[in-house]
Amino acid sequence: MQTILSVENLSKVYASGFRALSRINLDIERGEIFALLGPNGAGKTTLISIICGIVNASDGHVRVAGHDIVTDYRAARSLIGLVPQELTTDAFETVWGTVSFSRGLFGKPPNPAYVERVLRDLSLWEKRNNKILTLSGGMKRRVLIAKALAHEPQVLFLDEPTAGVDVELRRDMWELVRGLKASGVTIILTTHYIDEAEEMADRIGVINAGEIMLVERKDALMRKLGRKQLTLQLDAPLSAIPSTLAAWRLELDANGSELTYTYDAENERNDIIALLKSLGDAGIGFTDLKTSQSSLEDIFVSLVGKDAALADTGNGNGKGQVSAQ
């Protein structure tokens, strides 16, 4: 695959001495959807801000389609669209006016047909003459996306695009993302919802404490770090696991009625067959079995720590959410 965005040895140290990023190296492939995950303060927004020319790096280089983000800023920035977290729009401007103005900011000639297509794709066409201040929060989010797409960028950053929006907008958003990818646009997103990254992304990057911990294709990541579990419903409760089965590292539930085996999916067939034979030899029967596989959320927690992941949700019940700071 061709690289469209290259980050080389990128670091950011603020005047206070706080190191937000430390020697980040990252290549983004043209036409992919790349999800960047990490806890609060991990450096995601700082990284995006540097790439988009909002924050200056302390060291390192960023190139977009070969254009250096510092020495060739205008060319590099013209290839990037950014949908920020905050709902910052021109309150007294119309939807059509603000989207058209964003296109002009990048030196693009007027193209009413293109602007109309973007507004229709985002269900904004009927609101095109409305002032921004009259729109709902969800509609304002759509306007931000339209503004980011107005100059036909090749790379689109979505910084928490669906946080706090309704289900309809989330569905429309991901339909639009799939369409953009099909047209060759590269999508880089941060999200509170790990299930979105698991469904949408081609590759996953995990950043923590200003350092990239892992970059991997999603399917390969799930194979390498995702655990599988086999749970057996026993036909008679056990008071303890027989010593002859110690090598399998089985877990017995509190009632003694379930055995759970955690295993490597790549060795699935041979391991399961051998385990079932060992159970039979030990005189242990079962009435039912089921398998499950760890999710991307489980992998994220294992990489950055349970406490960090729970802190990002605001409570211990925020399943599937991480922060995008």
From TrEMBL:
Domain ABC transporter positions: 5-234
Record carries keyword Isomerase: no
UniProt keyword Coiled coil present: no
Listed name of the protein: ABC-2 type transport system ATP-binding protein
Matching CDD domains: ABC_DR_subfamily_A
Example of a GO MF term: ATP binding
InterPro entries referenced in this protein's UniProt entry, alphabetically: AAA+_ATPase, ABC_transporter-like_ATP-bd, ABC_transporter-like_CS, ABC_transporter_ATP-binding, P-loop_NTPase
Keywords: ATP-binding, Cell inner membrane, Cell membrane, Membrane, Nucleotide-binding, Transport
Cross-referenced Gene3D superfamilies: P-loop containing nucleotide triphosphate hydrolases
